[in-house]
């Protein structure tokens, strides 16, 4: 035998030398769930270790995470049914608790990178990402609502807007509106290839945002398709997206690779709630080691070409690195 690949695995120091990929806390965005009120911290049943916070406790949580080196956060609001309507009007009400909280976060921690989601579902009485008429999700009529929501979020100081709705043309629509209103520095991380996935289940529990009828297959992508992601990526890039995101991550590592091989912008991957909960559920049964599974998952997402990972594991990962 002339070639013995095992020689490069013979000790930890050699293994470290030949290691091709690594995950840093700098790569991570930590999604956080916000609820209205004060002194509230409620664990999400289907996501052990993940909580919904009122703003006062969220500020504490952010501070703690920043001490661990996490500098980027994506905040999602959970709205009560009573504040939802068909046109998601609460999403751009300047007095709404979500927008006030975002402003407060940026005021207290101007150095962090704050991301927010642009989509109707948390505010929609239909639980869909677009305006509903006669059981259909309207595309162009939805853009105007997404536009108002985007401006309201840019206004309170959000650094990166994350349109997660999958309506056609929304990146360009939002980009134009931001530029016209003086928000040239507000970035867009487009949910470019967002698949109609079973792995969002726990997230919809966390926000009580499940669709009230039907499913999201007329706007989110079919898990069977990969080449279609190239069309979505072409459009988003042309329309001014600063980052392209693939979601979910684990069943879509090939899509992450496809976009990272073909597009020069940073690629992000959303390691979604169901991917987190699967690990936690198995670990609770002692069926696998949660820490090792987490590290392997994050590494695989990096290895496939994502620079950025949105993950509920962020704090746990950061703690391990300390
Ligand atoms: N727009 C954000 C999400 O839908 C997150 C899904 C998840 O974590 O399951
Ligand atoms: Mg698109």
The pLDDT mean sits at 97
- Topology as a string of helices (H) and strands (E): HEEEHEHEEEHEHEHHEHEHHEH
Share of helical residues: 25-40%
Number of strand segments? 12
Distinct ligands: 5-azanyl-4-oxidanylidene-pentanoic acid, magnesium ion
Q: Give the amount of beta strand, in percent.
A: 15-25%
Integer tally of domains = 1
Distance between the termini: 42 Å
Q: Count up the helices.
A: 11
Read across the widest sheet, the strand sequence of neighbours is 1-4-5-8-9-10-11-12
The gross shape turns out to be globular
Uncertain segments of ≥5 residues (pLDDT<50)? none
Radius of gyration (Å): 20 Å
- The level 1 CATH classification is Alpha Beta
Query: Which architecture name does CATH use?
Result: Alpha-Beta Barrel
Catalytic activity: 2 5-aminolevulinate = porphobilinogen + 2 H2O + H(+)
Family: Belongs to the ALAD family.
Binding site for Mg(2+): 232
Organism: Algoriphagus lacus
Task: Provide structural commentary.
The active site is at 194 (schiff-base intermediate with substrate), 247 (schiff-base intermediate with substrate). Keywords: Heme biosynthesis, Lyase, Magnesium, Metal-binding, Porphyrin biosynthesis. Its EC number is 4.2.1.24. The structure is a single chain. The protein starts with 11 loop residues before the first helix and ends with a helix. With 322 residues, it is α/β, with parallel strands linked by helices. Helix content is 38%, strand content 18%. The mean pLDDT is 97. The chain has a single domain (19-321), classed as TIM Barrel (Alpha-Beta Barrel), CATH 3.20.20.70. Helix 4 packs across helix 5. The strands form 2 sheets. Strands 1-4-5-8-9-10-11-12 form an 8-stranded parallel β-barrel, surrounded by 8 helices. Strands 6-7 form a two-stranded antiparallel ribbon. It has helices at 12-18, 55-67, 97-108, 140-155, 170-180, 201-207, 228-238, 253-262, 273-284, 290-303, 314-321, and strands spanning 28-34, 41-43, 51-53, 72-77, 113-118, 131-133, 136-138, 160-163, 187-194, 243-247, 267-271, 308-311. It is built from 11 helices and 12 strands. The relative contact order is 0.14. Bound molecules: 5-azanyl-4-oxidanylidene-pentanoic acid (FVT) and magnesium ion (MG). 5-azanyl-4-oxidanylidene-pentanoic acid (FVT) binds at residues 117, 164, 200, 203, 272-274. 5-azanyl-4-oxidanylidene-pentanoic acid binds next to helix 9.
């Amino acid at each position: 035998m002339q070639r013995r690949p095992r020689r490069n695995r013979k000790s930890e120091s050699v293994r470290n030398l030949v290691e091709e990929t690594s995950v840093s806390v700098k790569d991570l965005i930590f999604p956080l769930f916000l609820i209205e009120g004060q002194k509230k911290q409620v664990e999400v049943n289907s996501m052990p270790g993940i909580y919904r916070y009122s703003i006062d406790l969220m500020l504490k949580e952010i501070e703690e995470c920043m001490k661990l080196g996490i500098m980027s956060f994506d905040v999602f609001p959970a709205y009560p049914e009573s504040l939802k309507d068909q046109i998601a009007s609460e999403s751009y009400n300047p007095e709404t608790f979500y927008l006030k909280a975002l402003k407060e976060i940026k005021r207290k921690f101007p150095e962090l990178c704050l991301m927010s989601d642009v989509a109707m579902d948390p505010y929609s009485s239909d639980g869909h990402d677009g305006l509903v008429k006669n059981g259909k999700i309207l595309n162009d009529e939805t853009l105007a609502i997404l536009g108002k929501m985007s401006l309201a979020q840019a206004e309170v100081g959000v650094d990166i807007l994350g349109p997660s709705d999958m309506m056609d043309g929304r990146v360009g629509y939002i980009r134009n509106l931001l530029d016209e209103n003086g928000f040239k520095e507000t970035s867009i991380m487009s949910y470019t290839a967002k698949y109609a996935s079973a792995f969002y289940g726990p997230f919809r529990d966390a926000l009580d945002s499940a669709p009230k009828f039907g499913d999201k297959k007329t706007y989110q992508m079919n898990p069977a398709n990969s080449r279609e992601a190239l069309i979505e990526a072409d459009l988003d890039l042309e329309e001014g997206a600063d980052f392209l995101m693939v979601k979910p991550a684990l069943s879509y590592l090939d899509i992450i690779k496809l976009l990272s091989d073909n597009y020069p912008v940073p690629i992000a991957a959303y390691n979604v709630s169901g991917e987190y909960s699967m690990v936690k559920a198995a670990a609770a049964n002692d069926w696998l080691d949660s820490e090792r599974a987490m590290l392997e998952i994050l590494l695989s997402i990096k290895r496939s070409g994502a620079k950025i990972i949105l993950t509920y594991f962020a704090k746990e990962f950061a703690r391990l690195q300390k």
